[in-house]
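Late entry, written up from scratch paper. The run itself happened at the end of the previous shift, but nothing got recorded in the book at the time, so transcribing now.
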Amino acid sequence: MKLVHTVAELRDEVTAAKAQGLTIGLVPTMGALHEGHASLIAAANKENDFVVVSVFVNPTQFGPNEDLDAYPRTLEADCKLAEKMGANVVFAPSPKEMYPSTDDTWVEVTGDITKVLCGRTRPIHFRGVTTVVTKLFNLAQPDRAYFGQKDAQQVEVLKRMVKDLFFPLQLRVMPIIREADGLAKSSRNTYLSQEEHTAALVLSRSLKAAKAMYKAGERDAAKITAAVTADIAKEPMSNIDYVEIYALPGLEPVSNPMVGSNLLAVAVKFGTTRLIDNVVLEEK
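Output as recorded:
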């Protein structure tokens, strides 16, 4: 596996792979890799001949007073995990390398899809995501790009971008990877104290209960969100940002009764750490 830091180096690696007729899988990450990222890299390795993993803490998706400076940076460990899971190249650029023109050019998905859920309180976040992912798509020229279902709104926004801008790639969405106790894997889990970690288990419990309600026949979105909100609120350390349901694809307003596929998403703070989780409610 090769570690590269510049656009020129990555382009050389991609050009060589393309010249050999290899298919390319891209796994964009912000580093601090864990088992969730490992599952994405493993899937990319299985489905492609050549795998590029980006490790870049993207400053343009962090708002004021968010955790850009504190976000964990563990490049050496990230490279070891990426290599173990089958990556051929790790691309770890500097902010200056990725934004050489002082952020003059942006790619933005507008409309309600970026204004609900996390977009409501993080207004610049998805513009930063779509801009940096576009740059990575242009550089790596992947046949397939891999993202986790935990970041469900991000996935829907990127699907829209790929469709609207005619990117010639397949966007692969992989299942949420959870810790043994049910907490969704996240780089931000390292911020939690042991007490906060235990308190945060209410997220997976409440989502599991909501799925059971749906399976038992409940189709009233308001009743399901009320039940989840009540469950989470019972945990004294929780501070709820949102508990909401939207129709898939595209985060459309949910019908009542619910039909088709629907996303139940939550965002909750435990101490200073904001965690997200979700479950898809649909009839199999």
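The two ends are 40 Å apart (CA to CA).
(Scratch paper discarded after transcription.)
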